[in-house]
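Good morning C.,

I know you're traveling, so I'll keep this short. The sequence:
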Amino acid sequence: MKQALSPESPVRFRRGQFRAITLGVGASALAMACSFGEIDSGPQFGTDVVAPAPTPEGEGPVVDEPGPPPGGPTTTPAGGSTSADPDPYNADDPFTSEMGKQVKSILDVNCGQCHSNGVALGDMNYILDLNELIKQGKIIPGDASDSQIFIRMQQQSMPPAFIRDQRPTFGQIELVGQFIDSMELAEECDPLAFMTQDEMISAMARDVSTLDEGDQPFTRYLTITYNSNAGGCGRELDRQRYALYKGINSVSTNNRITQPVAIDDDKTIFRIDIRDYNWDRALDLEDDNIVDFTDAWLAIVDASAPYAVEFEGDQADDLKLDTQTAIPFLPVNAFIQSTEQGDLYYSLIGGRANLFVFEREVLNLDTQAEIAEDNLMRAGFSNSGVSKQERVLNRFDNGIAAGQSYWLSFDFDGGNGNGVVNGVSNGFDVNVDNESIYADPLDFAFAGGEAIFSLPNGLQGYYVAAADGTRLDEAPVGVVIDPAQNNGLVTNGASCHSCHQAGLITFTDTVKKYVIDNANDFDNETFESVMAQYPDKAVFQRQMDLDSAMHVRAVEASGVPPKAPDAITRVYLDFQLGDITAAYAAGELNVTKEELLDNLNELDPRLAPLGEPGGAVNRDIFDAAYFDAICILQGVSTNAPANCL
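The tokens, ready to paste straight into the viewer:
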């Protein structure tokens, strides 16, 4: 399918704002919601899962591999020591400093009962051995936000959510992060050579010219030069790559994992073919039969304003002519921000405006019939740590592709009648007066819920729904909360990747035992259905492990190293909430820091703080000033921004 050249006008601004409040730590360290289940005492740190037998042929994700994963794992972290203590880190005896003693006590009190003194839950009994934590990759010296110990504490997934009487305070968690950040880095990385806007566009124009003419109209590029030009290197630059590798496949409806191809030696510019992700299809963001965009790429461009910029000049014109679109490249951070929330996220993964329609039309699944026939796995619990009500988790697979699954949480109504919206039943409110899953573990109202399902390529997709099945961009805090954020908001897509990097979160069913212990309170039909629907813990856990392992394999197939922390959430939050310094602003504007500061007086006055020592601006200000700034700073380039005033 040939694409028409995009309109010669600036794209519409449709990017939504992510509302979150930091908790005394940098935005880059802010954890997202673990909104699915109660965390048990299985493997908790890292991305360990119980590995099943190899997937039978034809049942796992298919991977298109253009060679070794671009930008493979590095062992060299970026940044420098930022000591907050006169002697924060002693390599010979790490916990001897005053800060170290406090951190050791925090870990001992909150983690030691399961992970020390001969107790090895999740194969980890060295929580008080800092050198071993570093050796095993649980702590990355100088980088708390990439350290699994800090990440899991900040997510509130460690200690497990069901442990209520002993939890670290947010201040203690922050202290752990400060201690990790204060450690001396074993080795610093060297920044990459600066790449100008002209060099970047020329590289893409040369690359696309080497492709078959039939492939050129579907070729696009995603870049991380904004980070390398700002001085990012090593682990920091890898984070951008990993966000791209996983992120682009997480919004694909193709049955293959396809890795982007680096076209430069430093792996900062990546080529993609939009057909590899089924983005050559027309896309309807509103799901009301009005198709707004010729293809999904144009919708992504539209949502990425103001960072989706058209350029004109000899190389830029050649690039546009070959790709047959006005904006053939985007920065990765803007791409992640636009595709991981709202209508665009749902539309890219094939979501429908209503969950129940999505189940029938996309997944070929009749959940009501499956429940009536006891053809599902189910577990219920009271203390999920993320929901204010009791919850029931349901697993369906009948009619779904082999080896894939659909998990749906029912957020319990509590007798509020939320199973009926505007007088219309959603089909699950058999007993809207039921006040407890223990009183009636089969009939209860669907007051809203979250779904985790297998994308065709094996990665997980996410869906949040209201009582009538209407899809939601954010989960209502009255039903489900994010305990790691003061405002409790759960943003679908963006809020899900971090906690679910290793797949589904383990929890323990408490309903089946209750029914067995109180068998005389239930009739035979109810008792038998509970026995059929609620399997034993080992059976349920094995299925969770199998489903999680499919997701983990797909993540690794995308190019993300095993056990690496999720990068999508981190890059999303860095973009939304991180302070934009002069160096980072210059990187996003494709100029050096010195060039930016030399021309600061010509730019929007709201950018003036960038010229002050330690000065920064927030993303809203930078959004508003970006296009005019790049017009001024890149206006003399061979390939200059189009549509400038």
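Safe travels,
E.
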